[in-house]
Amino acid sequence: MDTQQLIPEPLEQYCQLFDQAFTRPTQQATFRTYLQGLLLGTERHKTATGLANTEPGPPGSRHKDAQRLQWFLSESTWDPEMLNEARLAMLRTLASTAPCDGAVLVIDETGDRKYGTHTAHVGRQYLGSLGKVDSGIVTVHVLYDTPVAYVPLKFVPYTPAHHFERKTSDPAFRTKPQLALDLIDAVGADWPYRAVVADSFYGRNEVFQTHLIRQHIPFVLALPASHTWWHTADQPGSVEQLALRAAPVAWQPLVRTSADGHQEIKWVAELQGGPFGPHQTFRLIVVTPDPMELPQDRTEYLISNLRTDEHDTTLWHAKTPPATLLEIALLYARRPRIEQAYREVKQHLGWTHCQARSDLALRRHWNLVCVAFCFLHWEAAQPTEDPPATEPHDDHQPAAAAQPPPTWSAALRRVRCYLEPFVWIWRAWRAFTTAEPPKTLLALLNAVGQGRPLSLYVT
């Protein structure tokens, strides 16, 4: 093993897949350092000083290692779009993230607090991570959710109106639904999907709905319980009132299984009334744990343009295979599990820790975080050296079913179990001496450098 190499072999093999996105060897070397720093623990923020392991504060920020990372982010010449295209090409080769007809496109937003007036895209707006209006940056993401894994495909930051000379009337201003539509159009041709899934912010937006309908794009969107329409006094005028008037026989049981294996029984009904119905523009499906009470925070009101059956010729319905109300409910159920987990993994990998101000530097940092996230899927898909265990007396052992990839938290823990010992032991040893480590210590570094995790619970 080269004692000068401070990148473990699995990460080095992964980084080689992206070398074509960088024009110089120094950029490739800094890319490895940056990616490794993102994957390490969060004892320090993933800023230039934290990634370079220099002293916090102004003294460390002036160190050449921190300056190199800051230059790589803000002043270097590499294109973040080329890096993202290389990442998408890699994802197409993995069984867990390869394009498939059973996938869904999930529209998600990330809102993070950010202060100052000179940073690109900053403004007072609603931040989902805080649940209130504050100063920050919002990015709109489109994620690809296969039956076993999910990955971000593309994202774009939302720029508040005050950044434009003519505010909302400026031709360059784009709302969040318009940005989401641009993302869907950008990835739809290369990534097949069953439906587009989004929350009530997009479900009640007429521009978003109209575009999907005109393009015959299948979707499942949420509506707020307060969604109303024009009605007479003796007719229900909101989706909640329709659900409360539903007949008991209209409700069907649905078993939802969460990522941790916990199962919960929900009740599903397809309702008709007002502008909704099997032969209207939208189908309305309600999912709730209690059809009598309809708890506000746990009841979902979903609209979809998926057909009811093969004979459905409604003009505004998507020309895709029909879907039952249970399938529509399960399609939307894939969004909430992503919403929480995707936010957590981004924070573990330092999404909000970037201290750059320019639009280019922010996009570069966010693309690097996405590359670090996809390393977890790539690493989990690599073959292991341990042969599968079989019973010696069974000559006809059935083939094991394909195991789903581990959750992001389990995958990240496994990576850190070999990455952190490798990095920190080497740094401590080099700070102590320039001599080669003893044979026993070198054997340990060789093992973790090859991607063999250390169990912290073995005595």
- Total strand count, please? 10
| Residue fraction in strands | 15-25%
Rg, alpha carbons: 25 Å
Q: Briefly note the structural class of the backbone.
A: alpha+beta
Mean pLDDT: 89
**Tally of helical runs:** 14
Characteristic terms for this protein:
16% strand; alpha+beta; single chain; 459 residues; 10 strands
Question: Care to describe what's here?
Answer:
The protein contains 14 helices and ten strands. The chain has 459 residues and is an alpha+beta fold. Strands 1, 2, 3, 4, 5, 6, 7, 8, 9 and 10 form a ten-stranded mixed sheet that branches. Helix 7 (176-187) packs parallel to helix 9 (206-214). The radius of gyration is 25 Å and the shape is globular.
Entry summary:
The protein has 14 helices and 10 strands.
Topology diagram in text:
Layout: H1 9-16, H2 25-39, H3 48-52, H4 58-61, H5 64-74, H6 80-91, E1 104-113, E2 123-127, E3 132-145, E4 150-158, H7 176-187, E5 195-198, H8 200-203, H9 206-214, E6 219-223, H10 239-244, E7 252-257, E8 263-271, E9 283-288, E10 300-304, H11 325-348, H12 359-381, H13 408-432, H14 439-449
Helix pairs in contact: 2-12, 6-12, 7-9, 12-13, 13-14
